[in-house]
Amino acid sequence: MLSTSKKACTVNPLKMSQPIGAALAFMGLKGAMPLLHGSQGCTSFGLVLFVRHFREAIPLQTTAMSEVATVIGGLENVEQAVVNIVSRTKPEIIGICSTGVTETKGDDVEGFIRAIRQKHPELDGVALVSVSTPDFKDAFQDGWAKAVTRMIDQLVLPAAPDVQRHPRRLNVLAGCHLTPGDIDELRDIFESFGLEPLFLPDLSGSLDGHLPDDFTPTTLGGIGVAEIAGMGQSSWILAIGEQMRGAAELLSEKSGLPFTLFDRLTGLSSSDDLMAWLARISGRPVPLKFRRQRSQLVDAMLDGHFHFGGKKVAIGAEPDLLWAVGSWLTEMGCEIRAAVTTTQSARLEDLPSGATLIGDLEDLEGMASDCDLLITHSHGRQAAERLEIPFFRLGIPTFDRLGAGHQLTVGYRGTRSLIFDIGNLFIAQAHEPNPGTWRLPEEVMASA
């Protein structure tokens, strides 16, 4: 059952805003510059958050709306920002994400873009995509999903009835719960079946931590605008995460292809389903290396189930991440005692949890008092200390540990890694017997 907290205010936020979710989606495109249409503070917050999580240079600009500009309207600010970005950084695409202040004013950003293009023909070679992401509603996952849907709407060319399909090309719509490491793992899986995956967005090309040959003020890599335009000529569509359903439906409509949606790729059964689907569409048997990885996962499950069985877990995460990890933990024998998320999702109605709440970290802490493990992003570390229970960092932002961008949660190898990482936390908390454990109570000794 999914319910919403009735508190008057958020005390310790779990949720992150729509604009930064949309901005991160644009960072999965090659030569991109996300632009937040709002005050400088909105952009500074997102910039710091992403720098601390990925530990990389983050391309993110602002229209720097002042009080006066907000009242009068933001056309001049958007125009100046777009022209300056194009002249100085030469991007392939600018993704314009609205914020609460400009949404409250009611700025017509689509109208702004038309006026700017008429006035500046030199911008014809640059894609300008705007997405409505007011931060006073919805959450990070919603902003990501809306941005991907707008990319498809604005950039993908409709497929002609007699289009020549690329026989091995696979469109993959990746949810925000997938890390660059997850996307790298999935690319390896797809290519092992002889497929050519196009990920939208592709954070593995832009935020995977590689060192470029030359400095660039825009994103370092990712999927290009021309590749997005040609996605209608692919042969299959795969969406990962319930958040990608709307984008998959739109891409299906523009390409004439049906889509397949996997709500999660964490766990043995979901990984098996993915392998069976890939074998079917590719016409190839599952490669031996994945058969071996499956065997290793089953062995890890056997080794770990002694430590997972009966454990009570509290999780706070975006809906698709909560669904993937929570469902897998239940399969391992854990009980999801507390589940807190940030926004609505149809999948969470089926989450095997006593109650799922749209709330904050204060709610999660209050529900987790008798749990054996707390799972959320780095802002949950103080709650875990107060509760004196193990803490597993998962999601954005993770700023007090290295390698957050390469954390692996999908497929056989990702699931095995989760078993080892979380299982070791349970083992570390186990109480070893000692002579004091064996000693009879004093009252029993006295009556003997």
UniProtKB/TrEMBL annotation:
Q: Which residues form a coiled coil?
A: none
The record's CDD domains line, in alphabetical order, gives: Nitrogenase_NifN_1
**SUPFAM superfamilies of this UniProt entry?**
Helical backbone' metal receptor
Q: In which pathway does it act?
A: Cofactor biosynthesis; Fe-Mo cofactor biosynthesis
One Gene Ontology term of the molecular function aspect: nitrogenase activity
Q: Which PANTHER family match?
A: LIGHT-INDEPENDENT PROTOCHLOROPHYLLIDE REDUCTASE SUBUNIT B (PTHR33712)
**Family per similarity comment:** Belongs to the NifD/NifK/NifE/NifN family.
The entry's protein name is Nitrogenase iron-molybdenum cofactor biosynthesis protein NifN
Taxonomic source organism: Telmatospirillum siberiense
